[in-house]
Write a structure and sequence with these properties.
Layout (H helix, E strand, L loop, with lengths): L5 E4 L2 E4 L3 E4 L2 H8 L1 H8 L2 H12 L7 H5 L1 H19 L5 H4 L2
Antiparallel strand pairs: 1-2, 2-3
Helix pairs in contact: 3-5
Length: 98
């Protein structure tokens, strides 16, 4: 987990008192980025919910999910890594995490 402090002054946003952005610069970067559009269009929320369903261990767990449990864990980890790479390449994460 990480955190940062954001300060607003006039039309500027300061992240951790070091990095200055115009007030709409971050939003515009997200709206114009093709990777963000890919996340929104690829239905990642459905995929994550499906992983939650098939990775939750219960006595009534489907045999197919049980037999593929390890594969599902690695597939979920891969999906989360893809999402993290996209998010951490966008402002303000690109500067605060680097």
């Amino acid at each position: 987990m990480f955190n940062f402090k954001a300060y607003f002054y006039g039309n500027d946003v300061y992240i951790n008192e070091k990095y200055r952005y115009n007030s709409n610069e971050i939003l515009i970067a997200y709206l114009n980025d093709r990777r963000v559009k890919y996340i929104l269009n690829s239905d990642f929320v459905y995929k994550l919910k499906e992983f939650k369903r098939c990775l939750t261990i219960s006595p009534y767990m489907d045999h197919y999910d049980f037999s593929r449990y390890n594969d599902n864990v690695y597939a979920a980890m891969s999906l989360l890594e893809d999402i993290n790479q996209i998010i951490f390449s966008l402002p303000p994460f690109d500067k605060t995490l680097g």
